[in-house]
Amino acid sequence: MTGKVENTASDRDRLIAGLEASLIIWNEWRSSRTLLTESPPDASVLAPVVAAINDCESFKRVEGTSLFSRNSGIGLYAEPLSLRIFLRAVRTSNFEAADWLTRLLETRSANFRFVAAIWGLSIEEEVEIAPGLMLLPFDHLPDSEVKRWLVGRAIPWPLHAWYSTGFFGRPGAALVRTVTNFPYVGNLEEAMRCIEKLEEDLRAPLYFLQAAVAGQPLAVGAWFEYEDPDLELGERVGSFSWFLPEVVPSITQLVTVDTVSLKREADLLRDLVPDVRSKLLRSMERFVLSQCRRNAGDRALDLVLAFETAVSGGKGDNSPVNWRIAVRTAQMLGGTLEQRKETRRVVSQLGGFRNGIVHGGALKAHEQKELEENLLRSSLIYRQLLRSFLSLGTAPDWSALELQPTSDKDLSL
Question: Rounded to two decimals, what is the model's pTM?
Answer without folding.
Answer: 0.87
